[in-house]
Amino acid sequence: MRHHGTVTSDPVTSTPGRPGPVAASDRDWWRSAVFYQVYPRSFADSGDDGVGDLGGVRERLDHLADLGVDALWICPVMRSPMADGGYDVADPRDIDPLFGGMAAMDALLAEAHARGIRVTMDLVPNHTSDRHPWFTAALAAPPGSPERARYIFRDGRGAAGELPPNNWPSIFGGPAWTRVTEPDGRPGQWYLHIFAPEQPDLNWDNPEVAADFAQTLRFWLDRGVDGFRIDVAHGMAKPDGLPDLAQVNTKMLIHDDSDPRFNNPGVHEIHRGIRKVLDEYPHAVAIGEVWVDDNILFGEYVRPDELHLAFNFRLAETPFEAAAVRESVEHSLAAVAEVGAPATWTLSNHDIEREVTRYGGGAVGLARARAMFLLELALPGPVFVYNGAELGLPNVDDLPDEVLQDPVWERSGHTERGRDGCRVPIPWEGQAPPFGFTRGRESWLPIPPEWAELTVAAQRRRPDSTLALYRSAIALRHERPEFAGEGLEWLPSAPGVVAFRREGGLVCALNTGAAPAELPAGEVLLASGPLTGAMLPPDSAVWLV
Ligand code: GLC
Question: Which domains are present in the chain?
Answer without folding.
Answer: 488-544 (2.60.40.1180)
